[in-house]
Structures are given as structure tokens and as C-alpha cells.
């Protein structure tokens, strides 16, 4: 499988999107989403220079992290919904958690991280679409959650994440992204700065997301190819291919 070619094609599209709106390429992080794909694919991308990968299932993260423990510069971002009883594995394996959506989860993670002597970068997941299948906190609840996170010393709030509306209507998707930019401003006002990351954009909408200020695009199928598993529509409504 020509993963290096897929990576190069996505890279070119990121560069073009940045150019269209006068942004520097370095202002956008490409986060490959390797969920459902084998560790051989991850190793292949690692060989091509990729150092961060994202997973959305705790068990899959733990299994892949263990299997690939020899790749010393490998970092994992966990982007899936987390239940408190699985906080331990995320605390042990993830370098970043992008789907924080409750104080209960923050508390569970913090406790596990304290035990391990680790810290974790976290992003609050925001439900910008209101669609039934979506996780995340309502836009109105984001500032309060961000403030409350100050209690947990092992968590560092680095930004906000969203999965935009599942529609081909660019105006609707763009509004989800603009909601995020507005929320980041409110969080910064409340906390006196920080919260720089806007993780938004997937295979189907990452160029639009960059044009709306994304600093992290989470790209799965455009790099690794189509996924096939039963809960796919829940986890990745915008998957292409
Ligand atoms: C699967 C997933 C992605 C990547 O989706 P693609 O459409 O394959 O690029 C991005 N973000 C989240 C939260 C996901 O679960």
C-alpha cells in the first residue's frame, strides 16, 4: 500500500489550503488517524517520518502501543469517547487526549496520571453540530468546563476539538468551525490565554477546516484507506471512500 504517496497527497492539499488563506504550513498539525488499521501501516508511516497517530478505542490504543513500543519516538493521541473505567489505559499510553467531555472523566484521568507521575495534554470536545450521534459538550458549557479543569494538575488544556456536522453543505460545516474559533476566544478570555489548539477537520473537510483556522487536522481514510467496521457511522460520519 502506497501510504507515503497518500501522505504526500494530503500534505499537498494542506499546503494548498494554507496558501489560500495566507497561513503558514507550520501552523497546522497533520494527525493521522490509524484506527482499525494494522500496526504494519503505522510502522510504514513511522518509516516515512510520521511521529503522531490517533486512535479512538481504548483497547486498540493499548494493544497497538504495546506492540509498537520499540518505536521510541511514537506518540499517541486518543480521540475517542472515554469512560471513566478505562481512564487507566489512556493515562498509561496517550500523550494527548482530544475528547475530554466531562469533569468525571477529567477526575478519573487525573487520578490515574498522578499515580503514574505523568501529565497529559487535553482538548475539550465540543458538540458543534447538535447531531444525535455526536459526543462532546455543548458550546455553552465549554467555558465552565475549561475553568474547572484548573483543579487537575496533571491535565494541561491545550485546545478544543470538534467533529463537524455530517453534511456536504459547506456553509453548515463552516459554521461549526467558526463556532470553535469563537469559543476559543471565550476560553482564552476566561483563563487569561492558552487553549491555542483548534482540532477540526477530517478527510472530508480538512481543507475547509484549515481555511477556518484549524491547527490540527485528524485525517484517517485519506491516508490509510477506507475502514470497515460495524460502528463506523457513529465514529466517523464524514469518512470518505
Ligand atoms: C475516525 C476519526 C477521524 C478521521 O476520520 P476520516 O474521515 O477517516 O479522516 C477524525 N476524528 C475523529 C474523532 C475520528 O473518530
UniProtKB/TrEMBL annotation:
Any one GO molecular-function label of the UniProt entry: pyridoxal phosphate binding
HAMAP family per record: PLP_homeostasis (MF_02087)
Species per Swiss-Prot/TrEMBL record: Propioniciclava tarda
Record-linked NCBIfam families: YggS family pyridoxal phosphate-dependent enzyme
Essential cofactor(s): pyridoxal 5'-phosphate
Record function comment: Pyridoxal 5'-phosphate (PLP)-binding protein, which is involved in PLP homeostasis.
Residues modified to N6-(pyridoxal phosphate)lysine: 35
SUPFAM superfamilies: PLP-binding barrel (SSF51419)
Recorded superkingdom: Bacteria
Similarity annotation: Belongs to the pyridoxal phosphate-binding protein YggS/PROSC family.
InterPro entries on file: Ala_racemase_N, PLP-binding_barrel, PyrdxlP_homeostasis
Record key words, sorted: Pyridoxal phosphate
Identification of the protein by name: Pyridoxal phosphate homeostasis protein
Location of the Alanine racemase N-terminal domain: 7-227
Amino acid at each position: 500500500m502506497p501510504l507515503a504517496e497518500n501522505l504526500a497527497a494530503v500534505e499537498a492539499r494542506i499546503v494548498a489550503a494554507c496558501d489560500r488563506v495566507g497561513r503558514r504550513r507550520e501552523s497546522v498539525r497533520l494527525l493521522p488517524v490509524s484506527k482499525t488499521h494494522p500496526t504494519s501501516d503505522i510502522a510504514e508511516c513511522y518509516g516515512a517520518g510520521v511521529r503522531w497517530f490517533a486512535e479512538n478505542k481504548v483497547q486498540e490504543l493499548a494493544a497497538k502501543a504495546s506492540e509498537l513500543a520499540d518505536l521510541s519516538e511514537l506518540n499517541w493521541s486518543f480521540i475517542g469517547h472515554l469512560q471513566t473505567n478505562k481512564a487507566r489505559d489512556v493515562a498509561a499510553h496517550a500523550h494527548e487526549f482530544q475528547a475530554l467531555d466531562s469533569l468525571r472523566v477529567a477526575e478519573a484521568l487525573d487520578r490515574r496520571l498522578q499515580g503514574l507521575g505523568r501529565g497529559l495534554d487535553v482538548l475539550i470536545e465540543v458538540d458543534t453540530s447538535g447531531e444525535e450521534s455526536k459526543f462532546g459538550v455543548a458550546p455553552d458549557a465549554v467555558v465552565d468546563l475549561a475553568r474547572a479543569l484548573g483543579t487537575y494538575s496533571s491535565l494541561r488544556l491545550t485546545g478544543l476539538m470538534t467533529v463537524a456536522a455530517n453534511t456536504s453543505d459547506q456553509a453548515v460545516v463552516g459554521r461549526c468551525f467558526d463556532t470553535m474559533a469563537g469559543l476559543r476566544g471565550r476560553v482564552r478570555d476566561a483563563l487569561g490565554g492558552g487553549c491555542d489548539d483548534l482540532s477540526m477537520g477530517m478527510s472530508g473537510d480538512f481543507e475547509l477546516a484549515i481555511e477556518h483556522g484549524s491547527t490540527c487536522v485528524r485525517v484517517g481514510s485519506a491516508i490509510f484507506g477506507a475502514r470497515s467496521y460495524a460502528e463506523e457511522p457513529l465514529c466517523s460520519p464524514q469518512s470518505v471512500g
